[in-house]
Design brief:
The structure holds two protein chains of two kinds. Chain A is an alpha/beta fold. Helices cover 45% and strands 12% of the residues of chain A. Chain A has 22 helices and 16 strands. In chain B, 44% of the residues lie in helices and 17% in strands. Chain B has 18 helices and 15 strands. In chain B, β7, α8 and β8 form a beta-alpha-beta unit. In chain B, α13 runs parallel beside α14. Chain B is globular. The chains are: A alpha/beta, B alpha/beta. Chains A and B meet through β1, α2, α3, α4 and α15 of A and α2, β4, α3, α4 and α5 of B. The complex binds iron/sulfur cluster. Iron/sulfur cluster sits at the interface of chains B and A.
Chain lengths: 521, 428
C-alpha cells in the first residue's frame, strides 16, 4: 500500500487509451466501472480533442457483480463492433475489471466478432500509464505483423533501388509532450536529408498503416517510453535497425542526423543539414548571466536526460538535481547523474521531489506540471519540459521540442522565466529606487514564470525557521529587505543555516554579511 | 434499452423513462473535491487503486492545491494477496498520515471499487483505528466507489456515515438542520434570511469544522440544500428527524418555496416569508432580468450527471424562459424530488439512468441550443457545433439562494453569448 497525493502517471489502461486515441480505425473496449470514464476528459479537455477517445466502457455496477458482468462484456463488444466497425478491436480491463476475473480477452475471442481482436493484459496493480501505452502498442504491432515476419533463413525483401531510403517514426502519441509538432519537425528534417517517412505510429496511424512498417529501412525510436519495446521487436523480427538518438537539443539533433546518415548509408554532409539559433544565442553576451544558474530537472526519462545535457552543455547552467519518475529509465538517468556528480532522484512521490527542490533552492526548475506547482510555491522560476502537463502545455502555436526548431523553442522557454541579464543587473544597481521595490515585476514577466517573483510573501512560511530557531534582529531584517527580492529567499535561508551552524540565536547585520561571505562562490 | 416505469400521478407528474447501458458519470470519489473544501479539518483517505488517485487529480483540475486534504492509499499486489497484511498496511499508512497532519480532526476512509470487490471492510478498520487514535480525532468510513455511487452520491455516503456521531438533541426543542454542502458565503446568507424569519436554531450539516456536529432528534426538521442525499435523509429520519418537503433553493421561486417550507414548520405563513424576504427577492429579480434575455426561448438538454438536473431544469424553464428537450438524471429519488416533479409537470421528457450512445444520438437529433454534460463529452459536442455547459461547475460554484440567481443563470448564458460574439468557425 502506497500513500499517494498526486501521481505522475495514470494507471496502465490510460496508456492503452492513449494508443487507441492516437490512432484511426481502432476501438478499445474497457471492462471498467463508470467512474473510470473520467479518462475521456484527459483527451477532450487537456488536449482539446474534438472527438471522444474511441473507447466503450462496460460500466458495470455492484448489482451486476457475480452474475452478469461477463454478458455485459460480450454485449459491449458486439455493440462497439457494430457501431464503430473498427479495423481492430482492442480489449482490456481496468484495475477493478482485473479483480473480477471475467477475462474479457478470452470472451472476445469466443464471441464471433466481425473485427480482429487483440486482448491486452494490463497488470493494473504493478504497472503504470507509460508501460500500458508501450505494451498496448507492442501487442497491436505484434498482433498485426507477427505472421509477416520473414522465416529463419528468409531475407526481408530489399528496397527497390529507385526508392528513397525511408524510416518509421515510432512512439509519438496523444497526451505525449509536444508530439504533434515534433513529428512535423522531424519529418521536415528527414525530408531535407532525402529520407522519406514511411509510417508514423501510433499517432494518426490506422492498423493498415502498421502493416506497412516493415517496408522502411529503419525505425526511429522517437518516444522511447512508448516505442522502445516495439522497436526492439521489429529489430529482431524484421532486421530493422533502430535509430535511438532522440533529437532533443542541439547536440542530440546532430547525433540524430549522424546516426540517420550512418544507419541508412547516406552520402550527405551532416553539417549542411540544418542549423539552430541556440549556439549563437547561447554565446551572445547577454547570455553570460545564464552561466552557472543552478537548475533542477525532473521529468520522464527521455526528457530528463535530454534536458540535463542541454542545460549543462548548451545553456551553461549548473545541474544541481536530476531525476525521473520513469522507473523503466532509472538506469540511464542514474548513470548520467553520476557523470554530473549527482545522485539521481528516482521516485514517483511528489513530496520527495518537493523536499529535494526545497533543499536545493535552485534558480530554475525544469519539470512537469507537478514541479511547476512546487516551484510556484517556492517562488522559483520554472519551465515545463515533460508530461504530465496541463492544458497550457498543449499550445495553439507550432512549438516543437525536437530538431533544430525545437532547440530554439527550448532556449526561449527556459530563458523566459529567468530574469533577463540586463534587467537583473539594473535591479541590483537600482535596488533602492522606488520603482525597483518588491512589487515591481520584470517587464517581460507577465505570466506563469513570474509567479514566484510576484508572490514573495507566499514563500515566507515555507522558509521561515522552525519554532525555537534563530531570530532576526530588526536591523538585519531591514538589511535583508534591501536584497533584491528574487534572491532574498535564498539569502534568508542561507543566513539562518549559517547562524544555526554557528550556534547563534539572533541574526544581526554582521551575521548576514558573514553568511554572505561564507556562501559566496 | 428503455422502458416507462413510473407514472405516480398520471395527470400532473412527468413520465420517467429508465435507460440502462454505458454510463459516463464520475464515481462518488469526486465528491471529495468539494467536501474537503467544506470540512476544513477533515482528511479523506481513499483506499483504492492508481485509477482512483488519477480520477481525483483529473477531476480536481490537477494540483490546484499544494498539499490537498485528500490522498489515496494505492493497493498493491501484496495487499490483494493477504487481507491481514492489508489491514496492517492501512494502519501504517494512517499513522504516517496523522503524523504529517496533526491539524486533522476527522479522517474518512473512503472505499473504492477495488476495496469493495476484495471486500476490505473499511468500517471495521475505522473502528479499529479509532481505538488506536482515540481522543485525537474521529475516524469513519464511507464508500465512493463507482460500482455503488455516482458523482454527487459520494457526499450522500459521507454525510450518512457521520449521522451516527451526531449528538442527541434535547427533547422538545425544534431545530432546523440544513443538509448538504454549501459554500460558506451561502451559509451566511441563509442564516441571515432565517434570522429575518425569526428562526435562529439552525444548523448546517456538514459544518465547516468537523467537530461541529449538529444535534439530531425528534425535534429536528431536515431541509435539504442538495437533492442527492437519499441515504443521509434515511439515516437522519431513523434518528427521529422529520424531512421538510420542499423544492431546492435554485432560482427565485425555488429559494422562496424552500424558505416557505421551512418557515411553515415554525408556523409562519407563506405571505409572511414573502414579505420578510422581499428585498433580496427584488434584487434577484432585477439582476436576473438582464441575463434572462439571452436564455429566453432557447432550448436546453440535460445529460445525466450531477443529480441537480431536475431543479436546474425547473429554474431555467420557469424563470428563464428556456424550453427543455430532455432532462436526464443518473438516479431519481421520487420522494426527495417530489416537489420538483410536481413543478416540472407532465410535459417534460424525463430519463433516469444512461445509455451513452443513444443519449448522444438524441442530443444530435434535437440539436439543442445548450447541452449540460460531463467534461469528457463537452468538447466533442462543441466540435459538432453544439454549445455545452459542464455540470461539474455547478457543484463547485455557489449557485443557491437569491443573491446567486443571476450567477446561476449566467453560467448558462455565457456559452450562448460566446457563440454570438465569436466570428470564427467551429472546429470539426
Ligand atoms: S470508479 Fe472505482 S476504480 Fe474507478 S476511480 Fe472510481 S472508485 Fe476508483
Amino acid at each position: 500500500m502506497e500513500l499517494t497525493l498526486w501521481t505522475y502517471e495514470g494507471p496502465p489502461h490510460v496508456g492503452a487509451i492513449r494508443i487507441a486515441a492516437s490512432m484511426r480505425d481502432v476501438h478499445l473496449v474497457l471492462h471498467a466501472p463508470q467512474g473510470d470514464t473520467y479518462a475521456d476528459l484527459l483527451f477532450t479537455m487537456i488536449e482539446r480533442e474534438g472527438r471522444r477517445p474511441p473507447v466503450t466502457w462496460t460500466t458495470f455496477q455492484a448489482r451486476d457483480l457475480g452474475s452478469s458482468t461477463a454478458e455485459m462484456v460480450i454485449e459491449t463488444l458486439k455493440g462497439a463492433c457494430d457501431r464503430y466497425q473498427p479495423q481492430v478491436l482492442l480489449v482490456a480491463e481496468s484495475c477493478t475489471g482485473e479483480l473480477i476475473q471475467d477475462q474479457p480477452g478470452a470472451l472476445a475471442k469466443g464471441a464471433g466478432l466481425s473485427a480482429p481482436i487483440i486482448p491486452i493484459e494490463m497488470a493494473a496493480y504493478t504497472r503504470k500509464e507509460n508501460w500500458g501505452a508501450s505494451e498496448t502498442f507492442y501487442q497491436l504491432v505484434r498482433g498485426l505483423l507477427a505472421a509477416k515476419a520473414p522465416k529463419p533463413g528468409e531475407e526481408q525483401p530489399l528496397r527497390p533501388a529507385d526508392q528513397p531510403p525511408s524510416v518509421n517514426l515510432i512512439g509519438p502519441t496523444k497526451l505525449g509532450f509536444r508530439c504533434r509538432d515534433d513529428v512535423i519537425e522531424i519529418r521536415r528534417l528527414l525530408e531535407s536529408m532525402g529520407v522519406r517517412v514511411n509510417v508514423v505510429a501510433p499517432l494518426d496511424a490506422t492498423p493498415h498503416d502498421l502493416l506497412r512498417i516493415p517496408e522502411a529501412d529503419a525505425n526511429v525510436n522517437l518516444a522511447p517510453e512508448v516505442g522502445e519495446l516495439t522497436c526492439d521487436w521489429l529489430k529482431r523480427q524484421f532486421k530493422q535497425p533502430t535509430i535511438s538518438s532522440v533529437p532533443l537539443g542541439w547536440g542530440a539533433t546532430r547525433d540524430f542526423i549522424a546516426e540517420v546518415i550512418d544507419t541508412l548509408g547516406l552520402d550527405i554532409d551532416p553539417d549542411a543539414v540544418g542549423e539552430s539559433r541556440l549556439p549563437w544565442y547561447s554565446r551572445s553576451v547577454d547570455s553570460t548571466y545564464l552561466t552557472g544558474k543552478r537548475v533542477f530537472i525532473f521529468a520522464d526519462g527521455t526528457h530528463a536526460l535530454a534536458a540535463a545535457r542541454m542545460a549543462r552543455d548548451e545553456m551553461g547552467f549548473e545541474v544541481v538535481g536530476l531525476g525521473t519518475y520513469s522507473r523503466e529509465r532509472a538506469r540511464d538517468v542514474r548513470a548520467l547523474a553520476t557523470e554530473y556528480g549527482l545522485e539521481a532522484l528516482i521516485t514517483d512521490d511528489y513530496l520527495a521531489v518537493e523536499r529535494a527542490v526545497t533543499e536545493l533552492q535552485p534558480e530554475l526548475v525544469l519539470g512537469t506540471q507537478m514541479e511547476r506547482h512546487i516551484a510556484k510555491r517556492l517562488g522559483i522560476p520554472c519551465a515545463v519540459i515533460s508530461t504530465p502537463a496541463h492544458v497550457q502545455d498543449y499550445p495553439a502555436r507550432y512549438s516543437p521540442q525536437m530538431g533544430f526548431e525545437g532547440t530554439n523553442v527550448i532556449f526561449d522557454t527556459w530563458v523566459h522565466p529567468l530574469i533577463m541579464g540586463l534587467e537583473e543587473h539594473l535591479l541590483t544597481m537600482f535596488r533602492d529606487d522606488f520603482e525597483f521595490n518588491d512589487g515591481a515585476v520584470p517587464s517581460h514577466l507577465g505570466g506563469e514564470g513570474g509567479g514566484g517573483a510576484q508572490q514573495p510573501d507566499n514563500v515566507t512560511p515555507m522558509i521561515s525557521p522552525e519554532p525555537g530557531a534563530v531570530a532576526w534582529a530588526v536591523s538585519a531584517e531591514k538589511e535583508l529587505r534591501k536584497i533584491p527580492f528574487f534572491v532574498r529567499g535564498k539569502a534568508r535561508r542561507n543566513t539562518e543555516h549559517f547562524a544555526q551552524e554557528q550556534g547563534l540565536s539572533v541574526i544581526d547585520v554582521e551575521t548576514l554579511y558573514e553568511a554572505k561571505a561564507h556562501f559566496s562562490r | 434499452m428503455s422502458q416507462v416505469i413510473a407514472r405516480a400521478d398520471a395527470d400532473t407528474l412527468p413520465e420517467v423513462t429508465t435507460e440502462r447501458g454505458e454510463r459516463a458519470v464520475f464515481c462518488g470519489l469526486t465528491s471529495i473535491i468539494w467536501l474537503h473544501r467544506r470540512i476544513q479539518d477533515a482528511f479523506f483517505l481513499v483506499v483504492g487503486s492508481r485509477t482512483c488517485a488519477h480520477l481525483l487529480q483529473s477531476a480536481a483540475g490537477v494540483m490546484i492545491f499544494a498539499e490537498p486534504r485528500f490522498a489515496t492509499a494505492i493497493l498493491g499486489e501484496r495487499d490483494l494477496a493477504g487481507m491481514a497484511d492489508c489491514h496492517e498496511e492501512l494502519d501504517r499508512v494512517v499513522s504516517e498520515l496523522l503524523a504529517r497532519r496533526p491539524d486533522i480532526r476527522r479522517l474518512f476512509l473512503v472505499g473504492s471499487c477495488p476495496s469493495e470487490v476484495i471486500k476490505l471492510d473499511l468500517a471495521n478498520a475505522a473502528a479499529r483505528l479509532q481505538g488506536v487514535h482515540e481522543n485525537r480525532l474521529r475516524i469513519s468510513a464511507f464508500s465512493g466507489s463507482g460500482i455503488e455511487t455516482t458523482f454527487t452520491q459520494g457526499e450522500d455516503q459521507c454525510l450518512a456515515s457521520m449521522v451516527p456521531d451526531l449528538p442527541a438533541a434535547p427533547e422538545g426543542a425544534q431545530r432546523l438542520m440544513v443538509v448538504g454542502t454549501l459554500a460558506d458565503i451561502i451559509e451566511e446568507q441563509f442564516r441571515r434570511h432565517f434570522a429575518q424569519l425569526g428562526i435562529v436554531d439552525v444548523d448546517f450539516f456538514p459544518a465547516a469544522r468537523a467537530d461541529d456536529l449538529p444535534p439530531v432528534g425528534p425535534g429536528t426538521r431536515v431541509l435539504l440544500a442538495q437533492p442527492y442525499l437519499s441515504d443521509t435523509v434515511t439515516a437522519l429520519c431513523k434518528r427521529g428527524a422529520k424531512l421538510v418537503s420542499a423544492p431546492y433553493p435554485l432560482g427565485i421561486e425555488g429559494t422562496l418555496a424552500w424558505f416557505q417550507a421551512a418557515a411553515a414548520e415554525w408556523g409562519h405563513s407563506a405571505e409572511t416569508v414573502h414579505e420578510a424576504l422581499a428585498i433580496p427577492m427584488a434584487r434577484a429579480q432585477k439582476s436576473l432580468a438582464k441575463v434572462r434575455e439571452s436564455l429566453q426561448g432557447r432550448t436546453i438538454h440535460f445529460l445525466p450527471d450531477s443529480q441537480l438536473e431536475l431543479p436546474l431544469a425547473r429554474f431555467l424553464r420557469d424563470e428563464c424562459g428556456m424550453s427543455l428537450t430532455e432532462v436526464a438524471t443518473p438516479f431519481l429519488d421520487q420522494t426527495l424530488m417530489s416537489e420538483e416533479l410536481r413543478r416540472l409537470g407532465r410535459d417534460v421528457s424525463l430519463v433516469e439512468g444512461s445509455d451513452l450512445d443513444s443519449a448522444l444520438a438524441r442530443v444530435r437529433n434535437h440539436r439543442p441550443d445548450l447541452t449540460v454534460c460531463g467534461m469528457g463529452i463537452a468538447n466533442p459536442l462543441e466540435a459538432e457545433g453544439l454549445r455545452t455547459k459542464w455540470s461539474i461547475e455547478l457543484v463547485f460554484t455557489p449557485i443557491q439562494g437569491f443573491d446567486q440567481v443571476a450567477d446561476l443563470a449566467g453560467l448558462f448564458a455565457r456559452p450562448l453569448a460566446r457563440e454570438r460574439q465569436l466570428e470564427v468557425g467551429s472546429w470539426s
